[in-house]
Design brief:
Elements (H helix, E strand, L loop, with lengths): L31 H22 L2 H6 L7 H17 L1 H36 L1 H8 L10 H4 L19 H28 L6 H32 L2 H21 L13 H14 L29 H19 L1 H7 L5 H6 L2 E2 L24 H25 L6 H33 L2 E5 L2 E9 L4 H24 L6 H26 L21 H42 L1
Length: 581
């Protein structure tokens, strides 16, 4: 019904009952300014985010830090893991206490404080004050320098503690808290601006929201990453910090046009109360009001002797049905986050155009050096081009013909493409190592550090980035849409937070796997001859392992998704019969 709306929502005066209509108005009519403020703030925030993550491996690999390749790759993985793991807390904070608007605003302040760490760390004078003097490299026993065999068990290969590690991780932790809390709330907050316009408006908002995310990524990778690699990390960290400050101002100014709601209780609080009740009390009593056999969760309902309304318990049951989909997405995120970690590490050991190849570290030899992080733009540019095509052409055609695939089917397609990306990375790394062993490495200077690369052009990495870009269009956007649409209305923030939470688990899985394959007994990522060098490692095994895990998960996901779709259609038909009767 037209009057079935929240009292505090403002909507344009449209005559929905008119039989003669002018040309179809935009689904965003009356909400353009609110949506524009959110999308602009998100684009600026993404400039800040990618300003930190895009070259973090290079920053920690280079002077004066000289972190090992594994350590430098684990830092962004752990950072992104915390970012996503904190998302449910952000959703709970908004629902229970602050509301989405003030939660986002306060999180941007915390985010900004964390960003300030990096201009200080990249400046020599302030870095020494924060981190102390640079520690010397430990002397390695001869056995550790032998790349053809594993060191004997009685020989210990000392590892240099990451210089400035506590300060770097403190800054990353503050940023992660801010990013995670913003992430869990700004997506549903934006969708709230258009949700009364119907599912079409929500779907299109998610498309354009993701488009702006990638616009921010391109601006950051195209400008900030170049400045960081070729000019100064200090300036390269000041720019994204300023962008985040502007994002905060834009978001605050948008308050006058936003649809905002006060905190009205957290679904997480109710969930934990129900689960605690179930753990402490007996099995459900049979109820004459219900014909179906009661489940364990039904014991919390008032009608089965519990103390919770049926609506709250049914919401929790909806969440339980959604969780297997989120669990199945963990390997997808594990592969996805390689784009900003091990893929970057691989690119630093490929031949990059216009870099020095004569072994000298003269920074004045070249006027231009192609930033390794720019390859990530192939993913972002592809998304910028394909999302408008998908939104304006492909989806309307498929919808008219009844062929628009469900969000779960699109997620499955995305999983297939991300698996192909890991396979492509593994094949490329195999070829790269063959060239290094047969022809020897070439020397190239990046960030004032000499990297020993294969004489193989970095452009061979393009396919793996393109495949990840295609996978995002299917899996990531559909995942956001699924998390928002499948959730009961009162649990949308909670479930959106859980969606990002499981993304964070995927990042930690990648970090954990890197740590495991770096153990002496496996040795895929151990190189004591040169810190940061992967020429004596077996990174291709790691990529093939990720592809294998994703392939198995894809098969399981197909089973889970079919079962979920059947349950959802069955529930929909039951509701239809109930309304008809």
């Amino acid at each position: 019904m037209a009057n079935d709306k929240d009292a505090n929502e403002r909507t344009p005066l449209l005559d929905s009952g008119s039989s003669v209509r002018p040309p179809q108005p935009s689904v965003f009519q009356g909400r353009r300014l609110a949506c524009a403020a959110i999308l602009l703030a998100e684009s600026l925030e993404r400039i800040a985010f990618y300003g930190i993550t895009s070259n973090l491996v290079l920053f920690l690999n280079s002077s004066p830090f000289y972190w090992e390749g594994t350590q430098a790759s684990q830092a962004p993985l752990m950072f992104m893991g915390i970012t996503y793991l904190i998302s449910p807390f952000g959703g709970w904070l908004a629902d229970a206490y602050l509301g989405k608007f003030w939660t986002i605003a306060s999180s941007l302040i915390l985010y900004f404080l964390g960003m300030l760490f990096f201009p200080f760390i990249s400046n020599e004078d302030t870095r020494i004050g924060l981190c102390g003097e640079e520690a010397a490299f430990p002397v390695q026993p001869t056995e550790c320098m032998n790349t053809n065999s594993t060191p004997p068990s009685n020989v210990t290969c000392p590892i240099r503690a990451p210089y400035c590690g506590p300060v770097v991780y403190s800054g990353l932790f503050l940023i992660a808290l801010g990013v995670g809390t913003v992430k869990s709330n700004i997506t549903p907050f934006g969708a709230d601006q258009v949700k009364d316009k119907g599912p079409e408006a929500t779907r299109r908002f998610f498309n354009w929201f993701y488009w702006c995310v990638n616009l921010g990524a391109i601006l950051s990778l195209g400008g900030v990453a170049y400045i960081q690699q070729n000019f100064s990390f200090k300036l390269g960290y000041i720019i994204p910090t300023v962008c985040l400050g502007i994002s905060f101002i834009v978001f605050l100014l948008g308050r006058t046009v936003f649809i905002t709601k006060p905190a009205d209780g957290s679904a997480f609080t109710d969930m934990f109360k129900i689960l605690g009740f179930i753990c402490c009390f007996q099995k459900p009593k049979e109820s004459e009001l219900h014909r179906n056999k009661p489940t364990l969760l039904d014991s919390a309902k008032v009608t089965y002797g519990g103390k919770f309304p049926e609506e709250k318990v049914e919401e929790l049951k909806s969440l339980v049905k959604i969780l297997p989909v989120f669990l199945a997405l963990i390997p997808y995120w594990t592969v996805y986050f390689q784009m900003q970690t091990t893929y970057i590490l691989q690119s630093l050991h490929l031949k990059i155009p216009d870099t020095s190849s004569n072994g000298t570290a003269d920074s004045h030899q070249m006027t231009f050096r192609f930033p390794a992080a720019w390859l990530t733009m192939f993913d972002a540019v592809l998304i910028l081009m394909l999302i408008p095509l998908k939104d304006k052409v492909v989806d309307p055609i498929l919808k008219r013909r009844g062929l628009l695939p469900s969000s779960l089917k699109r997620i499955a397609v995305g999983m297939f493409f991300v698996m192909c990306s890991a396979v492509a990375a593994g094949i490329l790394e195999t070829r790269r190592l063959e060239i290094v062993k047969s022809e020897g490495p070439i020397e190239q200077v990046l960030g004032n550090v000499i990297y020993y690369a294969a004489d193989l052009a970095i452009w061979w990495q393009v396919p793996q980035y393109v495949l990840i870009g295609i996978s995002e269009i299917f899996a990531s956007i559909a995942g956001l849409e699924f998390a928002y649409s499948a959730a009961p209305r009162s649990m949308q923030s909670a479930i959106m937070g859980l969606f990002f939470f499981f993304s964070g688990i995927g990042s930690f899985v990648g970090s954990g796997l890197l740590a495991i394959v770096s153990l002496k007994g496996i040795g895929w990522m151990s190189s004591h001859k040169d810190f940061g060098n992967i020429n004596d490692c077996s990174l291709h095994y790691y990529f093939f392992l990720l592809a294998g895990i994703q392939g198995v998960t894809l098969l399981v996901f197909l089973i889970v998704s079919v079962k979920y779709d059947k349950q959802r259609s069955r529930a929909g038909s039951q509701r239809h019969r109930h309304v008809s009767s």
